[in-house]
Amino acid sequence: MDEQSETLDVGSVLIEISDKLPQHMYAHWRIEKRFKGPGDQPHVALRNVSDPYAHKLLSVSSLISARRFQLMDAAAH
Fold it and tell me: Residue 1 pLDDT > 50, yes or no?
């Protein structure tokens, strides 16, 4: 998990995978900010690439454990 969390840099784009949508409709989220949240845990602020008004704040550990998000470069392979 530490190795994956270090690759989540500001500016990286994540793809949100959904069983209910076709692949070409998956949401793309850009990491806008990294910060320490409650319990001194690392968190990220995400902004939707297509809709700048849509955003999410997530802990890095929940982001990785949910397995719904993939780094855009990793998803291409």
Answer: no
Mean pLDDT in residue range 38-45: 92
Question: Rounded CA gap, 40 and 15, in Å?
Answer: 26
Query: Encoding tokens for residue 24?
Result: 């070409």
Give the model confidence (pLDDT) of 22-40 as tens digits.
Answer: 999 999 999 999 999 888 9
* In the chain, where the domains are located: 2-75
On the CB side of 26, how many CA atoms lie within 13 Å of its CA? 17
What number of other Cβ atoms are within 10 A of residue 58's Cβ?
17
In degrees and rounded to multiples of 5, residue 70 shows phi and psi of -130, 140
Nearest to 31 by CA among 6, 53, 48: 48
25: left (phi over 0), alpha (psi -120 to 50) or beta: alpha
